[in-house]
């Protein structure tokens, strides 16, 4: 691999020269010393930072004083003077700054790429991928001014809102409460086994695809084939149990319905990743790629489920590892401005209570998750615990936390034979037909 140094010497000189001319720019820069390629430039920049921290103005005199005896090592006073003299204006400071950052990222990517090509064990890979993801995550973006933000708010106030502000959940009551899934939100959905949380997640993914969005599913427990079979059954209303032996159990009508469902599914932008033990950095890389390929679509990310993700690095306790991953997922939601829905296991403490409706403390290793999530919801079916319950096939979707809206419970019909969630009024209509 070509590991020749990649630098922007002129940009480094221009930035340092601009700082000598207009010292207060040091307080606005995104740069750090190691972003500079040349050691002399690193030392000069470190001296500037030290001067600023000492509440002194950055200029030729203060920087030379800070450098002291090492002034000659960086080229002497004559070199510092040439830096300032070579900059006709400080107006292009941000342009030069971005050039330095881009050169830094290219250098680091080459080094990390070489490491990845020469790993001696699979255990080394996650840390390298984490560092590579960090390079992309730290790519500089445009800073929004107060005017930018206030202009956007004014436009929101003066523009009629048509439909949902977020991604359609497919359930009217849930849409009414949330406005749809909002970009930048981390949504945790918890449930005990057999409550239908995977079916619920697939419904959300399918609904987004139905509206021409892109759904990115990261399934750590179930393979892609099983997930697609579930979705085809949901589309076609074919009993899920028949997939155990479709050759014998599918009727001619089932075959036709599944064929039609396949036609629908093929048109969707549904990206399924079923790698066990995937890391949050691998998820971010895959989502970033999907966004590049379909930048104008509404993207939805679903992770099934949190506790099966592979942490990167060593943590003293499992709850610290889970907390680290939930923070990274929240940051991803914000960075990409997309909703990220994460399914979660619940502790067995639910089963020991008289009222088995889940609460936030039931989320396994819940400490940091509660803080990071914008919405925390739970799925509960009374007829799972009470076979005589009057609420047959009714799922309660309990929103226990909603950072930007109301909390409460909405209801949906769950037809478990097909893995389908329906609005209650639709189910009643279908039963009367």
End-to-end separation: 67 Å
What's the CATH topology name of the largest domain?
Rossmann fold
CATH superfamily (homologous) name of the largest domain: P-loop containing nucleotide triphosphate hydrolases
Q: Based on Cα principal axes, name the global outline.
A: elongated
CA gyration radius, whole angstroms = 28 Å
Low-confidence stretches: 427-433
Backbone structural class:
alpha/beta
Please state how the strands of the largest beta sheet are arranged side by side.
Answer: 3-2-4-5-1-6-7-8-9
Number of domains: 2
CATH hierarchy class name of the largest domain? Alpha Beta
Helix content range: 40-55%
Content of β-strand = 5-15%
For the secondary structure, the number of strands is 9
Order of helices and strands: HHHHHHHHEHEHHHEHEHEHEHEEEH
What CATH architecture of the largest domain would you give?
Answer: 3-Layer(aba) Sandwich
Estimate the mean pLDDT confidence: 83
What is the number of helical segments per DSSP (H or I, 4+ residues)? 17
Main sheet specs:
9 strands, mixed
Structural commentary:
With 433 residues, the chain is α/β, with parallel strands linked by helices. Helix content is 47%, strand content 12%. The protein has 17 helices and 9 strands. The protein has helices at residues 9-21, 39-53, 60-67, 76-85, 93-117, 125-137, 146-158, 172-178, 197-210, 224-236, 246-249, 252-267, 280-293, 318-336, 367-372, 382-385, 424-432, and strands at residues 186-190, 214-219, 269-273, 299-304, 340-344, 375-381, 394-402, 408-415, 420-422. It has a 9-stranded mixed beta sheet with strand order 3-2-4-5-1-6-7-8-9, with helices on both faces. α14 (318-336) links the parallel β4 and β5. It starts with 8 loop residues before the first helix and ends with a helix. Residues 427-433 have low confidence and may be disordered.
């Amino acid at each position: 691999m070509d590991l020749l140094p990649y630098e922007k010497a002129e940009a480094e000189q221009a930035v340092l020269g601009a700082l000598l001319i207009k010292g207060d720019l040091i307080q606005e820069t995104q740069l750090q010393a190691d972003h500079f390629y040349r050691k002399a430039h690193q030392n000069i920049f470190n001296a500037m930072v030290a001067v600023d921290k000492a509440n002194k103005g950055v200029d030729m005199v203060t920087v030379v004083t800070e450098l002291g005896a090492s002034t000659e090592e960086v080229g002497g006073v004559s070199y510092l003077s040439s830096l300032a003299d070579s900059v006709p204006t400080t107006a292009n400071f941000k342009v030069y700054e971005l050039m330095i950052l881009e050169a830094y990222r290219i250098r680091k990517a080459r080094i990390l790429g070489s490491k990845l090509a020469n790993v001696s064990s699979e255990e080394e890979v996650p840390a390298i991928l984490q560092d590579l993801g960090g390079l992309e995550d730290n790519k500089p973006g445009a800073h929004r001014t107060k005017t930018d933000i206030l202009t956007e708010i004014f436009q929101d106030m003066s523009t009629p809102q048509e439909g949902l502000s977020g991604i359609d959940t497919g359930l009217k009551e849930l849409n009414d409460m949330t406005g749809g899934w909002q970009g930048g939100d981390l949504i945790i959905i918890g449930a005990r086994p057999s409550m239908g949380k995977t079916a619920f997640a697939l419904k959300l993914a399918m609904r987004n695809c139905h509206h021409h969005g892109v759904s990115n599913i990261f399934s750590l427990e179930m393979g892609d084939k099983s997930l697609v079979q579930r979705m085809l059954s949901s589309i076609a209303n074919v009993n899920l149990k028949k997939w155990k032996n479709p050759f014998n159990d599918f009727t001619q009508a089932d075959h036709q319905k599944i064929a039609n469902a396949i036609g629908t599914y093929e048109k969707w932008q549904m990206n399924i990743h079923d790698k066990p033990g995937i890391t949050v950095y691998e998820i971010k890389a895959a989502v970033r790629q999907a966004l590049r390929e379909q930048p104008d679509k509404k993207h939805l990310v679903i992770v099934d489920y949190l506790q099966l993700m592979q942490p990167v690095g060593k943590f003293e306790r499992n709850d610290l590892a889970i907390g680290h991953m939930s923070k990274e997922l929240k940051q991803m939601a914000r960075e990409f401005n997309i909703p990220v829905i994460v399914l979660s296991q619940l502790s067995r403490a639910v089963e020991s209570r008289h009222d088995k409706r889940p609460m936030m403390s039931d989320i396994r290793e819940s400490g940091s998750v509660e803080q990071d999530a914008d919405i925390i919801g739970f799925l509960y079916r009374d007829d799972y615990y009470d076979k005589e319950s009057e609420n047959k096939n009714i799922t309660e979707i309990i929103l226990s936390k909603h950072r930007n809206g109301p909390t409460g419970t909405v209801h949906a019909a769950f037809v478990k034979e097909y893995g389908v969630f329906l609005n209650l009024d639709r189910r009643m209509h279908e039963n009367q037909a």
